[in-house]
Amino acid sequence: MLAEYKSKFVTPEEAAARAVRSGDWVDYGFGAGFPELMDRALAGRRDELKDVKIRGGLVIRPRIEVVECDPERSAFTYYSWHIGDYERKLQSRGLVQFLPVMLRSLPELYRNHIRVDVAFVPVSTPDSSGYCGLGLSNYAWRTIFEQARTVVFEINERLPRLQGVDGSHRVHISEADYIVEGEHEPLPVRSYKEATDIDKKIADLVVAEIPDGAVLSLGVGGVPFAVANRIAQSDRKDIGCHTGTISDAFLTLYRAGKLTNARKEIDTGRSTWNLAMGSQELYDWLDAEPERFRPGDLDYVHNPYRIAEMKQVISINGGVQLDLMGQENGESAGTRQLSGIGGQMDFLEGAFRSQGGKGFVCIHSSRVTKDGERKSNILPFIPGGSTVSAPRTMIQYAATEYGVAKLSGRSLKERARAMISIAHPDFREELERYARETFG
Q1: Which CATH entry fits the domain spanning 2-181: 3.40.50.1000, 3.40.1080.10, 3.30.70.660, 3.30.70.20?
Q2: Which residues of the chain form CATH 3.40.1080.20?
């Protein structure tokens, strides 16, 4: 079977030379799946090309060659849908342009609003029939490469080989114009700081709201991981997974016997996800037990109407700031972009529409600056320059270490009172003064 596609197999350098022209838009994908061979080969053409735009996002590997080789941006400009750890470093050097997006709208952008010329798609080792898996990042790859002029598959021998029980994570080598292979670095892993005492307090409050059979969507960070650990130690049972990013939090639940997906109305018995990001142990789990998972594209996983077909969907995400009306800044420090909204809006809406569902935005009530000054993370209003990531109409529950505030269905005055009740005590008087003057 593979022999008939032999002509498609070329070196990365040949693929870069044949596929990319000056002025092109080139897509690298999202998350831990990264086309490292093609990135290196494209960087080698720096002196031949002009005005090549590269799109990616949430990059956790330590280097993007096309950026590092061309800090003057004479040939390459890098754009990100979601600022990751490495991209924050690029941002401080002025080497990344941010593209705001709700992930559920990304496929529609590619279909009808933006141009894509070349797609560099990381895939797993093909089976005997020529089918490959999309590894750690289903993303919107099929939508993207169906719009592209030229498609390059990069076979990464280290990627998990799962293809989705119904082919949801599968591509065929016949769909590529060029195929490259070679030795890859170990997959990029993402580790997180140990949960703090405050994270654990917030997790305890949120876990009290999670019933047996709940379907979890967990963001990444201290509170979602603490929630997973608390559930693992609790008497909860038959937890389900329908999440944008599957992480070690879900591996923890599985090892504790809690993650069965038995009560899910959709994908019963399987964990549903779009991206995978975490430890090598997580990646090994995906490879070893593919029948336990239903990886899917953004159209499938992030659709709030599909999420709403399941009962008791619980969405848990972190944030940066909340104001007294319930507006959330989840992604910036003033004008400095820290991350992106990702799928938070998608799952907040899906949980709201789900029978028995709940969406939580979890933050520490305050923080201490490098100078030792305590600052409130609950503010009278989101300050100018900062992002309003989720509007007040979208936030159902807000949680800090001081409690859980229900905001949906409440007036501005009632919202302010609820938010003040979960603020740090040092700032409540100031917040109450503002609330009296503003909301009466």
Answers
A1: 3.40.1080.10
A2: 197-439
What are the pLDDT digits (tens) for 294-339?
999 999 999 999 999 999 999 999 999 999 999 999 999 888 888 9
Report d(CA 54, CA 350) in Å as an integer. 31
Give residue for tokens 């999420």. 307
Q: What is the tens place of the pLDDT at every residue in 213-272?
A: 999 999 888 899 999 999 999 999 999 999 999 999 999 999 999 999 999 999 999 999
Q: Is the pLDDT of residue 1 over 90?
A: no
Structure tokens belonging to residue 253: 């639940």
| Cα-based angle 404, 250, 354 (whole degrees, multiple of 5) | 50
Asked if 268 contacts 241 with a C-beta cutoff of 8 angstroms, the reply is no
Topology (CATH level 3) of domain 197-439: Glutaconate Coenzyme A-transferase (3.40.1080)
Whether the CB-CB separation of 186 and 158 falls below 8 Å is answered with yes
| CA 404, 407, 408, 411 torsion-angle sign | positive
In angstroms, what CA-CA distances link 75 with 9, 45, 52, 54? 26, 9, 6, 11
Residue pointed to by tokens 């690029």: 90
- pLDDT, residue 9, reads 96
As a whole-number percent, the residues of the chain with pLDDT over 90 amount to 93
Query: Which sign does the torsion angle of CA 57, 58, 61, 62 carry?
Result: positive
